[in-house]
Design goal:
By secondary structure, the protein is mainly α. It has helices at 3-12, 16-42, 46-68, 77-83, 87-94. The longest helix is centred in the first third of the chain and has 27 residues, at 16-42.
């Protein structure tokens, strides 16, 4: 959950409601991460395990981002909105 999330949210989200949902989810996840980090550091697992867990989560996040997120470079706001509209809705709008 590095700085890339902030940049991507600002680039892809075209609705204020969606921006609010994204930022709320980000803040909840950061809160959970900060609450569990202290416990994990002081447990028998130690700080090494914490860094392995966080590193593993980052690898999973990168794989998910690469799989599901679409390129938006050079697209207009209207084109960005059309990227994530379900196929059935796209067909209905063209009729």
């Amino acid at each position: 959950m590095g700085t890339g999330v902030w940049i991507y949210i600002a680039e892809i989200v075209t609705s204020e409601v969606a921006m609010g949902i994204c930022l709320f989810t980000l803040m909840v996840m950061m809160t959970l991460q900060s609450m569990t980090a202290t416990y994990m550091i002081h447990s028998k697992m130690g700080i090494d395990f914490l860094f392995y867990c966080l590193g593993g989560l980052q690898v999973v996040a990168v794989l998910l981002f690469a799989s599901f997120l679409k390129e938006t470079c050079g697209l207009s706001t209207k084109q960005k909105k059309a990227l994530y509209v379900p196929i059935r809705e796209k067909g209905q709008k063209e009729l």
